[in-house]
């Protein structure tokens, strides 16, 4: 059963948001060394329950995106379409991580599906 493994918070001012989440919750935030502006968020120790996430610049109305770990992005794209959902962002490689796509459920909510690629690490 796929579980939520990552969240994203879309913001207008990344530096302001980073300061807010560090000050309020003590989260650790670091800039991702990838091809887009993205900040990785650590919400606690790896041994504790919970998930980590990311902060990105807002590019639309979506405020928070939850991403689910799936064994095969292509399989789950087919499943979401068969269930009446649509693809918001086609499958793409995430360097050093695996593959990611975004879907839209039947209520208009955006979510991510991530296929980890152990060979990418």
Mean pLDDT: 90
Helix run count: 2
Share in β-strands: 35-45%
CATH homologous group name of the largest domain: 2,3-Dihydroxybiphenyl 1,2-Dioxygenase, domain 1
Biggest sheet, in brief?
8 strands, mixed
SSE order, as H and E? EHEEEEHEEE
Quickly give the structural class. Answer: alpha+beta
Overview of this structure, please?
The protein has helices at 14-25, 73-82; strands at residues 4-11, 28-31, 39-42, 52-57, 64-69, 86-94, 98-104, 110-116. With 121 residues, it is an alpha+beta fold. It has two domains: 1-59, 2,3-Dihydroxybiphenyl 1,2-Dioxygenase, domain 1, CATH 3.10.180; 70-121, 2,3-Dihydroxybiphenyl 1,2-Dioxygenase, domain 1. It is globular. 11% of the residues are buried.
Fold blueprint:
Elements: E1 4-11, H1 14-25, E2 28-31, E3 39-42, E4 52-57, E5 64-69, H2 73-82, E6 86-94, E7 98-104, E8 110-116
Parallel strand pairs: 1-4, 5-8
Antiparallel strand pairs: 1-5, 2-3, 3-4, 6-7, 7-8
Structure summary:
The chain is α+β, with helices and mostly antiparallel strands and 121 residues long. It is built from two helices and eight strands; from the N terminus they run E-H-E-E-E-E-H-E-E-E.
Q: Which descriptors apply to this entry?
A:
single chain, globular, 2 domains, 121 residues, alpha+beta, 42% strand, 2,3-Dihydroxybiphenyl 1,2-Dioxygenase, domain 1, 8-stranded mixed beta sheet
């Amino acid at each position: 059963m796929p579980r939520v493994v990552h969240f994203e918070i879309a913001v207008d001012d990344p530096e302001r948001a980073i300061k807010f989440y560090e000050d309020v919750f003590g989260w650790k935030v670091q800039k991702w060394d990838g091809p887009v502006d993205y900040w990785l968020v650590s919400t606690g120790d790896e041994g504790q329950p919970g998930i980590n996430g990311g902060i990105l610049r807002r590019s639309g109305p979506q405020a928070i995106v939850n991403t689910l770990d799936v064994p095969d992005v292509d399989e789950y794209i087919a499943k979401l379409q068969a269930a009446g959902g649509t693809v918001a962002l086609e499958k793409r490689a995430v360097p050093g991580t695996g593959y990611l796509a975004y879907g839209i459920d039947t209520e208009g909510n955006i979510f991510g599906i991530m296929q980890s690629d152990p060979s990418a690490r």
